[in-house]
Specification:
mainly beta; nine-stranded antiparallel beta sheet; 347 residues; ten-stranded antiparallel beta sheet; disordered C terminus
Length: 347
């Protein structure tokens, strides 16, 4: 999915995640979704949405839903949208396929005095698979683009979680700290200007806009002040790993690449290097992440109900003429954080 970043005082994000996992041929499915977000501008309305989705059935069921909101005023605009889709197939391999999509855009145009815009979008889908093995594989395919222009910041987030329920009582059998299998985070937390020597195109006065993009063909990025992380450290994963890059002033200041991502180490910048990278997908790094898990050592019942949760979302903020103080950032997003805590389903 492509997003065009407005040239000044803007940030844009697109987050899409496709997933698949093999399922029991006799299963019934319960699918629940939640889409929520905010669009707000300094001289326009504050619009938000929160809507749910639910479906239940055996193989052959499918569904989709979407929602969104926007706000605009003089020299500002913001929009947020969310959607989900899924389908089930019983042949040749019983499989559940789905996707969650979130888009957040905010723009504040220079020359208008003090103005700002913010947006948040999130999509959450949970799938109760019914009776399932305590071990298996989830195939997770991220696709996102998060880019930052002047006087703006934002982040993306993408947890994948699992739980096993007692089929008689519906009570959780996993401690909360063992439920998250994967998280991906992309953060850009400072605007770029031509005064940042390490954050301009070499030989020019043009600021380099920070961006992290997981496309159909590659994973690439450039960071000025920010970070990119893939964390899969659940102790019940058979293939755990961490990929973490942290940048300050356009240079890598912290780095960890291990486990399932160790083969990418030579392709990523080291501490002290310019914070840019480009990893075309190939036979070694396909752009998909397989999460092989085995909870049989702590889940005694061989026929438990499995619940999978997939979450994609991001925040966007843009302001002119200058960066918003930290207290101001908290004020802008205070309402959206409260909304998330009230509405986000827990599994």
């Amino acid at each position: 999915m492509c997003v065009t970043i407005a040239p000044e005082g803007a940030i844009a994000m697109a987050i899409r995640h496709d997933f698949a996992f093999r399922v029991n041929p006799a299963n019934q499915f319960r699918v629940d979704g939640l889409m929520y977000g905010n669009a707000k501008t300094s001289n326009g309305p504050h619009n938000f949405y929160s809507s749910g989705y639910s479906s239940q059935g055996g193989f052959g069921i499918s569904g989709s839903d979407s929602d969104g909101a926007s706000s605009s005023g003089a020299c500002t605009s913001s929009s947020a949208s969310s959607s989900l889709a899924f389908s089930t197939f019983n042949a040749p391999v019983p499989i559940f396929l789905g996707s969650v999509v979130s888009n957040a855009r905010a723009r504040a145009v220079p020359g208008c005095g003090f103005v700002w815009a913010s947006a948040e979008a999130n999509t959450v889908m949970s799938v109760r698979e019914g009776r399932a093995n305590r071990f298996g594989r989830i195939n997770w395919r991220p696709r996102f683009n998060t880019g930052v222009g002047a006087s703006s910041w934002g982040f993306a987030r993408d947890p994948v979680v699992i739980d096993f329920l007692d089929p008689s009582t519906d009570s959780s059998l996993l401690p909360e700290e063992s439920r998250k299998l994967l998280s991906i985070g992309a953060v850009n937390d400072r605007e770029v200007d031509a005064g940042d020597a390490a954050c301009v195109v070499p030989g020019t006065n043009n600021a380099r806009s920070p961006i992290v993009e997981w496309s159909d063909t590659s994973l690439s990025g450039y960071l000025c002040d920010g970070s990119f992380e893939i964390l899969a450290d659940n102790p019940y994963l058979l293939n755990p790993g961490t990929l973490r890059l942290v940048a300050r002033d356009g240079l890598i200041v912290d780095r960890l690449v291990d486990g399932a991502f160790a083969q990418l180490s030579s392709k990523l910048p080291n501490v002290g290097d310019m914070a840019s990278f480009n990893l075309p997908f190939d036979s070694v790094f396909t752009g998909e992440i397989d999460l092989d898990y085995d909870f049989s050592s702590i889940i005694a019942n061989p026929e438990v109900d499995a619940v999978f949760g997939f979450d994609g979302g991001g925040d966007a903020f843009a302001q002119v003429p200058g960066p918003l103080p930290l207290l101001g950032v908290g004020a802008v997003y205070g309402f959206s954080r409260k909304l998330r805590s009230r509405t986000k389903p827990q599994i």
